[in-house]
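Input record (one chain):
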Amino acid sequence: MTLLKGIFITICMFSLGACGGTSLTLTQLDDKSVPRGADNILTLGFKVDEASLVNAVQVHIYTESEDATGNQINEVRLYRGSRSPDNLLGSVLGISLQNGIATFENITKTGTDYLVHVSFMNTDPESGFNPVETSLVSVSALNEKGEVIYYSGDKNKDGILDKEIFSSRIVTITDSGVASLTEDIHSPVNKNIKNILAGTSGKVFSNNIEIVNEDILSSGLIYTFEGENLDLRASISSATLYLGDTPIAITDFSNIGPNTITFNFLTIPEGINNLTIGLNTETIGYQKIGHTLRNAKVTGMAFTGIIGAVSREPIADIELNNIISSKAFSVVPATINVWANATLDSSDTAEINISLNVGNNTSSSSNASVEVQISTLLFNTTGSSYDGKYELFNAFDTSNILENWPIVGVLNFDVTSLNSTLQSADFETFGIRPTNPLVDDTVNLALYSDGIKYDVLNVDNSFGLSSHIAADLPLDK
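The corresponding structure, as predicted from the sequence alone:
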């Protein structure tokens, strides 16, 4: 028999020795790599241009150009139209292959599209396995009169194709999966130190995971944290694991320890993906169970109990230790909003407005509103030619004006003597200006992202907090 590798091979249907005008065409398929033990992989497809009852099909499976055996092939299946249990026309076990040939007979369903799927044994791909090719050997059908007809160039009508037609798809068997973890220094999640308002959620760390050859299954993913007097259980109610932007697992309180959070029974797909952990926090205050958490960060993560999703082969545990890309986070009863009310490009005085987010948090001793004292404002003057005095005041009370000079580009004001106490519905406006700059002086001025220091006066363990807004706030233009 002549062997032919074909993509758009078309063969006439012969009935009683004459071409009846019906044809068979192979389906174009790209080459594919699969892990050892892969199940139900499409290796060949063909179409007939008129619905007919194809009642017998033979396909030939080769491994390294030799006839495949049950040592490499677990099962060969023939489907009509699509791979579903209802469309299964027949199956042949690998141990039943005859010189690599699978024969499907007594097919009773009509169709135009036919698919051959192969399931592979979990055999070392280096042991005479690669590559795997599938060819179409013979096809026969019944016409409307119930006569046997053949998709064949053989006028003896024996159903054997003159040219054994190979699928365009070559399947390469790879070893079982391999996985690795890397830090993601460019992730927005890892960009800034952050405050999470108690009672809300926040993403705190993101990294990359790369998996080749197959998906993986893991019995556990453990994140490790460190922080000031850390006990995650006092602040965190649950945690969410994201693959990209999609949540794939939620762990409850029972899987949260003093410094660890565990996700159980995970499936992670092949490829390079981003993993992110988000924390769901408890509210803080009177008859509430949450507590302020300070300056925690992720220091390690480890996948344990990993196997290949297809091969079921054990895969070495993977971990990240001594993580440097994780930024500190705090869970606090009040967070700061700040925006520029005026800048120095349009006025001789810049103004900033400060307000609070308090959510459902309250005083520790009653249901009273959270009360905050702004203690310090820090400004960046780096790049200024002007190095003189600045004045700062509460815009609602200009009778009390503070004065100070920058030191190495840092301008520090203790504002506790001003009206700087806030509750949830309040905001305060502070003005700042350079005094008597020269015409040619350059004044660069910005509020540091962490430049608002504040104390929550009526909530336990909540003094000495910092704003941690997304970026420095420019006040010079």
